[in-house]
Design a protein that fits this description.
This protein has about 425 residues and is an alpha+beta fold. It contains twelve helices and 22 strands. The structure holds flavin-adenine dinucleotide.
């Protein structure tokens, strides 16, 4: 086999298509532990697959060196993704926050198009082939082995994903393979996972959503503030802003930093701004109840439950709000301490933070610096994007660069053989 790609998710399928197109005479095989490929693509974007985003830059990602991420994204930017999907029959349209979805509204159609493109390019797909080990081999390049089978391969691509949603087959096994081939693994944590909260505030607010900002501060690191929609749930908080915050909370925990998480109910306002708003409200509507003023900017349930939780009566007339209560409430509105006790973990996470360290991979080819002939793509690497199509874009871009690297290696090998003739 010329190229064995381990993992047939987004990154593996895209690498196979791009590589087979560049190397029309090469034998390219995709090996996946799952019998049917693409389980994660099928559940993505609520079954609609948010394929990419209109604007994608390195600042949408966390993890390894952003210059590395930026260079990979520039090699195959979001425009190229839209063009590629158009060419394989999946036209995209834009929705809120620049998210690009298939016009068909169907993740199934995205998977079917990728599988058809792979078949047209001559890629062989072997489901039910979980890889347990990869061994460098002097004669063959590599020997890839599973339970009761083995396959020699000149080049290997590791596209095994991270640990998110392990029932789809991405359970971190690829990280052990990378480690066995000499790679350093940045400790992994869930990313894009709902937050589990202590305290009682969330209990009365289940199902309520509103704009919010979450700040995660971990000792020694600059605080990170994220803004977006928040959805209160019976266990804590979900919605884009909570999901985006989860990786920062986990990183602080895993790196042993003390972590504090605060919620701002009035994004864009600081304490002084919130207090000024309350004062202005009291001046213009002195007989209105506090909860009426709060409901101008927040859902009615929050307008009652938040002041109560802060020890302020929501039914008080604004003219009667004491200075102490006003200041206490302003503080609660802009820096409510979120008692994060954990997240819902990998079973609910949409991505994985951590993975194979980027500094051991060549940014122009995605080839391993530790193990020549091994290439890496997708979520197995120490890169995680924010919510909004960025994780798939990383899969497409890194796949493109890996395929380019495979082609360059092949050209070098052929030139070497010619020189030896
Ligand atoms: C519920 C959910 C919704 C999501 N929605 C979106 C979205 O709308 N937009 C977006 O950008 N991102 C989304 N993501 C994230 C996105 O799906 C992933 O970032 C992306 O699929 C990663 O692609 P990958 O190919 O690197 O890994 P994966 O998709 O995880 O694929 C890895 C493949 O490798 C196989 N494998 C693993 N180990 C082995 C082994 N040892 N041997 C053989 N095969 C193996 C697995 O079976 C799997 O098929 C979502 C994720 C989840 C969980």
């Amino acid at each position: 086999m010329d190229v064995a790609i381990i993992g047939g998710g987004a990154a593996g399928l895209a690498t196979a298509i791009f590589a087979a197109r560049r190397l029309p005479h090469a034998r390219v095989v995709v090996l996946d532990g799952a019998r049917r490929l693409g389980a994660k693509i099928l559940v993505s974007g609520g079954g609609r697959c948010n394929v990419t985003n209109r604007v994608v830059t390195a600042s949408d990602y966390w993890g390894g060196d952003r210059r590395f991420v930026g260079s990979v994204l520039r090699a195959f930017p979001a425009d190229a993704t839209a063009e590629f999907f158009g060419e394989i029959g999946v036209s995209l349209h834009e929705e809120d926050d620049g998210k690009l979805f298939p016009d068909s509204g169907s993740a199934k159609a995205v998977l079917a198009a990728l599988l058809a493109a792979a078949a047209r390019a001559g890629v062989e797909i072997r489901g039910g082939h979980r890889v347990e080990g990869v061994r460098p081999d002097a004669a063959e390049g590599f020997v890839v082995a599973g339970d009761g089978w083995s396959l020699p391969a000149r080049r290997v691509v590791l596209a095994t994903g991270g640990l998110s949603l392990p029932k789809t087959g991405s359970n971190g096994g690829g990280l052990s393979i990378a480690a066995s081939l000499g790679h350093r693994i940045v400790p992994t944590t869930p990313a894009l996972a709902p937050l589990v909260l202590g305290g009682t505030l969330h209990r009365g607010l289940g199902g309520v959503s509103h704009e919010a900002a979450i700040t995660v501060a971990g000792g020694g690191h600059p605080p990170v503030t994220l803004r977006g929609s928040l959805l209160w749930t019976h266990f804590g908080a979900s919605g884009p802003v909570a999901l985006d915050a989860s990786r920062h909370w986990h990183r602080a925990e895993v790196e042993g930093r003390g972590v504090e998480t605060h919620l701002c109910f009035l994004p864009g306002l600081d304490f002084a701004g919130a207090e000024r708003w309350l004062l202005d409200g009291a001046a213009s509507r002195p007989t209105a109840m506090l909860r009426t003023l709060l409901a101008d900017r927040l859902p009615a349930a929050v307008a009652v439950i938040l002041p109560r939780a802060a020890g302020v009566d929501p039914d008080v007339r604004l003219a009667g709000l004491t200075r102490e209560d006003r200041r206490r409430l302003a503080h609660a509105l802009v820096a409510w301490p979120l008692q994060v006790t954990g997240t819902r973990g990998y079973n609910y996470a949409e991505a994985t933070a951590g993975g194979v360290a980027l500094d051991e991979v060549r940014r122009g080819t995605m080839e391993s610096k530790r193990c020549p002939g091994l290439f890496l793509a997708g979520e197995v690497l120490d890169v995680d994007g924010r919510l909004g199509g960025f994780n798939f874009q990383w899969a497409w871009s890194s796949a493109f660069v890996a395929a380019r690297g495979l082609a360059a290696r092949r050209t070098r090998a052929i030139e070497g053989e010619r020189r030896n003739d």
